[in-house]
Q: What sequence folds into this?
């Protein structure tokens, strides 16, 4: 049955399907992107008679992890998705799975996740006077690198060297009659591309929280 | 004479180019041929990346080593930090088959392979074993006998395969400095760390407890300058002195030179030619003793 479900989810979710694992007997964990969570839950409920047990949230530092626990006959499925703290929005299951109603309101109160399309997003756990920007179980965005280490990591990942090549250094080098720039990753785009492939290959960018667009850490 | 691939390292190429200029000219005089390691990245440095992502540290170092292997060249460096990374990764991957396979599966994506076919040589080993102390002694044109120098070998120069071998390279460093004719002064804290890596955890401790302690003893020893063999240590001693002065009103005024710069002066290269004035420590104080511009 596990294989059939995985195949069905893969077919329905397409690029939103990330991976599936079976940590133990009668247990299936499926990682999906946050864009695919509604489709995944709807598929399981519609085609396999799944029941939503609860949603649990975990603060991973840079992101929140949401685990949707669904009970199927003789199988427990966990849909796992990551919501970046910069954009804590995800589709609400409530319009199609009404049992998600209070669970999503609780996660919203405690972690600040906005469940888009929720028909009744009132406070549930916290009092109505509680400050809007205070989400008691969500910490500040933080990653592995300290403030001291961040520039080092950002330079390494963006240029392949840990210090930037300043125009002053270039002038000094020319005056000393040595090459203005060495044939390293700074001056060799193909070599830099290789470095980026290695960085992505070992998953370092995700681990350290590097944003390829801004070339900065996410924190 | 052998030809080497040279990994200059990030610090030298961007912050201390006079060390590179001195090394190139000094090696020219001594007849050593080095080729820049084309396509090289940071070694990567042995503090941040090794601590946060060891797999990346292995993979990028293995990639750098593979660039030299592909050219059938032995890899050398003038930086203790680069040496530490390359040496440790080279030895570890040679011995750990499963790790080597895992790293090579990553390198395969970029068409590279770590073979483990070469040795990593610190520049002091190249000078000692391949050039020879006799040849260097015969090449000295300007003995610096009126200069008193304190030495700082740096922690990573002690990196070795065996316990018995741990101080071989620091001794070579000392012998090379002696060949230039300088008078060595003993300040008693030669083996103490410069404090550079401690900055990650506590800058104040790095500067006041470690760096200032060493500089105080060096100043008391009446050395004219400090000679290092690591660009990272050089940055710590130079920029650290500026910070000690600005933050804590502690002024030591100790000029700092890299071994290659001292040797370049001794074999006849002028201080101005290699840009010693670009140092951030008061190297101008000893220019006259180095034979002027």
A:
């Amino acid at each position: 049955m596990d294989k059939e479900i995985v195949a069905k989810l893969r077919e329905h979710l397409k690029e939103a399907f990330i991976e599936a694992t079976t940590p133990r007997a009668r247990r299936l964990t499926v990682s999906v992107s946050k864009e695919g969570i509604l489709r995944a839950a709807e598929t399981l409920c519609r085609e396999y008679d799944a029941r939503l047990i609860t949603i649990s949230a975990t603060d991973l530092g840079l992101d929140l992890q949401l685990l949707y626990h669904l009970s199927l006959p003789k199988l427990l499925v966990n849909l796992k998705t990551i919501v970046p703290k910069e954009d804590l929005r995800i589709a609400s299951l409530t319009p199609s799975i009404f049992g998600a109603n209070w669970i999503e309101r609780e996660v919203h109160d405690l972690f600040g996740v906005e469940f888009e399309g929720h028909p009744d997003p009132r406070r549930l756990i916290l009092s109505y006077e509680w400050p809007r920007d205070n989400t008691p179980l969500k910490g500040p965005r933080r990653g592995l690198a300290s403030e001291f280490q961040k520039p080092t990591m950002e330079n390494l990942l963006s240029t392949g060297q840990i210090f930037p090549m300043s125009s002053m250094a270039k002038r000094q080098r020319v005056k000393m009659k040595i090459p203005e720039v060495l044939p390293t990753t700074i001056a060799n785009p193909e070599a830099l591309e290789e470095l980026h492939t290695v960085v992505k290959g070992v998953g370092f960018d995700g681990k350290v929280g590097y944003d390829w667009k801004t070339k900065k850490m996410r924190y | 004479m052998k030809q080497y691939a040279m990994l200059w390292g990030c610090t030298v190429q961007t912050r201390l180019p006079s060390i590179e200029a001195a090394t190139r000219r000094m090696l020219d005089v001594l007849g050593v041929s080095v080729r820049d390691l084309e396509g090289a990245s940071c070694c990567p440095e042995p503090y941040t990346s090794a601590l946060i992502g060891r797999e990346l540290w292995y993979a990028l170092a293995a990639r750098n080593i593979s660039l030299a292997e592909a050219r059938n060249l032995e890899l050398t460096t003038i930086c203790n930090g680069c040496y530490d990374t390359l040496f440790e990764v080279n030895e570890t991957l040679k011995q750990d088959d499963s790790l080597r396979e895992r790293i090579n599966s990553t390198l395969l994506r970029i068409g590279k392979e770590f073979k483990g076919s070469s040795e990593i040589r610190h520049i002091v080993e190249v000078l000692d074993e391949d050039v020879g102390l006799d040849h260097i002694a015969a090449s000295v044109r300007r003995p610096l006998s009126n200069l008193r120098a304190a030495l700082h070998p740096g922690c990573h120069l002690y990196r070795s395969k065996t316990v018995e071998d741990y101080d071989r390279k620091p001794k070579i460093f000392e012998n090379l400095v002696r060949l230039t004719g300088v008078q060595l002064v003993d300040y008693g804290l030669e083996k103490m760390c410069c404090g550079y890596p401690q900055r990650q955890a506590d800058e104040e401790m790095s500067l006041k407890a470690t760096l200032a302690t060493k500089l105080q003893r060096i100043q008391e020893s009446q050395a004219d300058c400090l000679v290092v063999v690591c660009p990272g240590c050089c940055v710590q001693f130079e920029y650290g002195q500026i910070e000690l002065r600005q933050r804590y009103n502690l002024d030591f005024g100790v000029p700092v030179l890299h071994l290659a710069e001292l040797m370049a002066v001794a074999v006849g290269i002028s201080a101005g030619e290699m840009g010693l004035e670009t140092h951030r420590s008061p190297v101008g104080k000893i220019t006259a003793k180095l034979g002027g511009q």
